[in-house]
Amino acid sequence: MDSNSMAKRPKPPSDHFNMDALLTSFLSLSDSPSIHTSFDRLIQSTTSDSDQNRLIQRALRLGSLLLDAANRSARRCSSDHNAVVWPLSPDLTIKIFSMLDTQSVCYVAATCSFFQKCAMDPSCFANIDLATLVPKVNNAVVSMMIHRAGDALKSLRLGVLPTVPAPPFFSSQPLVYSIRNANDASGFSWNDKKSRQGKESSILTRSCLNSLSSNGGAPGYGVHLRRLHLYNIERMDNASLLTSLSACPSLIDLEIVGLHVELRHTLESISRNCPLIERLVFESSKTGRDDGLKFPTCNEFVHNCPNITTLALKGFKLHDYKARMLVKGLRRLKHLDLSTSYSFTGAFLKNVSGNGGGGGDNLEVMILRDCMHLKEIEVERFMAAVLAGEFKLLRHLDISNREGLACEGDWSNRCYNASFIPIQQLLEQRPDFCLVAEFPKGSYNDNDQMIGSDVSLASQSSSSHTTDGSSTSDGSYNSDHGSGNEYGRDRGFTIYEENSDYLMS
Questions:
Q1: CA nearest neighbour of 401 among 356, 422, 370, 368
Q2: Can you tell me the distance from the alpha carbon of 269 to that of 244, in angstroms, rounded to the nearest whole number?
Q3: Are 407 and 491 in contact (CB under 8 A)?
Q4: What residues does 283 pair with on adjacent strands?
Q5: 218-276: per-residue pLDDT in tens?
Q6: In a 3-state reduction of DSSP, which class is residue 117?
């Protein structure tokens, strides 16, 4: 028998007994100076420096091993103690951990082995939130979290959050009519709207969601996913997003902000793969340039996704006839947000409610904030319809515009007030209605005078209807002389070719 095989043989029980006895005897020694004295005598008994150094190093190694063993045993005893004194059963502990955010679960798992065992349950990672203000997460972390969740995965938030949070979809406050002064508004320019991440240091790549669709030939982990929120993942493209959506047939909530993907392809994929979708929030990374949405795509989306209650398409070119098809066709639609969108004038609101039986009947919230081509006359007609008894469920309307509303006939003339809206009559008929109309170039009256039943109709201050460059905050309107809207012809509205490339230069 060779020496290698001899080395691999386990020590006989007698050796373990001797080691245990020796360690017990050593630990029974009192913490007295005699240990130091004995060790000094042992060192002095050796004649050579090399032997002394060897003894010292040996003592250090044995002391380190003993310290490590003591620390490990202390942690194990503490964990056993936690398991005994912790008042909740493992099942209840897992239930509580599953309610924590992802980062907190990771912190809890590092506390002790008992909590780590509980935190490794797939249900604790059912709702993964890896969205951060700065890039911190890479593909490996995303994949690990998704695999930990497995089939229990219900929601996933990922990417770099926008620096400025979006305004809420609705408010419980009574009617608040406010037109803020220009000094209260932060500098906003249509030309300055860019991708929110704005850095080349993105860690996530186009393959960050591969784990949703790949599971060794079996259905991917995205099969039970209900919510997917993606923010400013610069390297995500159409192909990778569409592949991920195809693996999520149970999706009901999709939010896409700042991704370099096209609206038409995304809506087509949602129509084919996500028939249960109820909430869609899609904010373009290139405001005003994505005009690829086609009529057949709108038609397919309306028919294949009838459960939509919340729809936000922000920063896209959206003509009135397309907007009308979406609003009228989605009969369960309650929340609509078309902020920062181009091309539509507001004519799409005609006949989407009332006897038409369209989706406008259920609208509760509508946000048309900073829409470049939204016309004053169309807002006036819409408010007349509201006062006439249509849109009975609508309780929140936002028509604020940093550039003012477009005037009839020439959209380059801007209106910076909303005196055409009969505020008093609206308050009397709809006391819980919330109207937000902020125009930085004009002032109707102070915010503190316009809340709830204390609304007072102070005299209107100066309004502005100008055609020169001073009528806009950045002069971008002079570069685009028409909405390109098909609804303009029957109102004597002159249509011009829209130069979107110049707008975004």
A1: 370
A2: 10
A3: no
A4: 257, 314
A5: 678 999 999 999 999 988 899 999 999 999 999 999 999 989 999 999 999 999 999 99
A6: helix
